[in-house]
Amino acid sequence: xxxxxxxxxxxxxxxxxxxxxxxxxxxxxKYGGKVPGxxxxxxxxxxxxxxxxxxxxxxxxEVGIHSFHSELPETISEEELIDVVKKYNENPxxxxxxxxxxxxxxxxxxxVLGVIxxxxxxxxxxxxxxxxxxxxxxxxxxxxCTPKGSIVLLERSGVELKGKxxxxxxxxxxxxxxxxxxxxxxxxxxTVVHSRTKNPKEICRQADILIAAAGSAKMIKGxxxxxxxxxxxxxxxxxxxxxxxxxxxxxxxxxxxEAKKRASxxxxxxxxxxxxxxxxxxxxCLDGGKRAIEGTK
Length: 297
Ligand code: NDP
Hints:
Elements: E1 5-6, H1 9-30, E2 37-43, H2 47-63, E3 66-72, H3 78-90, E4 96-99, H4 109-115, H5 127-134, H6 145-156, E5 165-169, H7 176-185, E6 189-193, H8 200-204, E7 209-212, E8 230-233, E9 237-240, E10 248-251, H9 256-259, E11 265-266, H10 274-294
Parallel strand pairs: 1-11, 2-3, 2-4, 5-6, 5-7, 7-8, 8-11
Antiparallel strand pairs: 9-10
Bound molecules: NADPH dihydro-nicotinamide-adenine-dinucleotide phosphate.
């Protein structure tokens, strides 16, 4: 009776995808068949990367976003990869460029990401987009998809952010750090917890909003949660589970069963933040495509 509302990320992501499809259709009608275009670049044969790329392309198809595909060999040189990115920079039908990470060891990821044109940086990882996210009075052209998805889940659940104490567990470039800056932009008072933080439990207990992105299975226990907090669990950890056919199960960074007795809102794993990542990628592609096709900035 007193349990948290479970935030249905699958449902919210599906709603967003329908909204995006409607906007793509509208753009297409208005501008003689023009649609947003996304280039997906993958290097090497990693099975997990191939799965992610397949999911992203399928999601594009479903909403009517055109996808370009470059499947490059593991042995490609940094220079050749940069040339591929530059070609997409110049292609007027391509409005977003996604280089699937990780790249092979002989290639400098930051160098490659830094070549992506700012207007096409749909992953939001370009240092200038991150810089604008950090700066007062500036807005980035794109924000990283997973942390953005976390914020959208809060907003669509009706959670007030302004003036609230927010704690982010984790400070990675792709999740924790951008999440903390986005909450700051939303007028939260933000504290970041990382692996060297002295009293993480005491800090988390102050959080009205808690975003967990540490990659450590169930590290956040029920008594780390403030009564009534909104909890977004980004963690996706695979743990052994003999009851499952596959032999493993996915769990978050939060002990869900304990935390839901104290939180007011909580995301499950899977089915919380996960589905939002691709929805936000589609949103970024739409935004980039719209700016280019409508000729606005
Ligand atoms: P990283 O490993 O890059 O970063 C983890 C961060 O958490 C680091 O800042 C680290 O601190 C901190 N940390 C690790 N352990 C602890 C601990 N015990 N206490 C406090 N802080 C800790 O991971 P990512 O940011 O890439 O991913 C985080 C989680 O989110 C993972 O489970 C990942 O699978 C998941 N994820 C899910 C996505 C999705 O749903 N679509 C997308 C991306 C990620 P320090 O900086 O000091 O090392």
